[in-house]
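Note to self: keep these together.
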Amino acid sequence: MKNKRAGKRFKNWKAPKLKDGQMTKWHWVVKGVKNFRLGRETDIGAFTYIQADAGVTIGDHVEIGGGSLIYSISTIDHKRGPVNLMKNCRIGAHSTIMPGVTVGENAVIGAHSLVKNSIPANTVAWGVPAKVMGKIVNGRVVLTGK
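Structure:
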């Protein structure tokens, strides 16, 4: 399912030219470019930092809010592992995704969340740490109250 929100905005979308550790013209940075995979028609907000030394894959139609941090390696707890943001998922602004996490297809992460564990497809999660708080059913959010 293509992200309907994108509309004509990505009519002429082209993959960005990336240089390791250097800011793109849209003001986001990737460290470890050789281990970074970017899908089509993605939207990565300004001042997002992606640490991809252990692998980061961003699927088609993914949206990442500005100021987000995506780490495949953590120097605090010495964890490392690939990060996978699956097709059509959305990451709220100023969220942090930790090593080894997969955010499932169509999943939504609320702003300012700390995602330490994988989030299933078609769910809504938020918090510090992020927890699944609802499901996406027929394009609508149904809160589960957990």
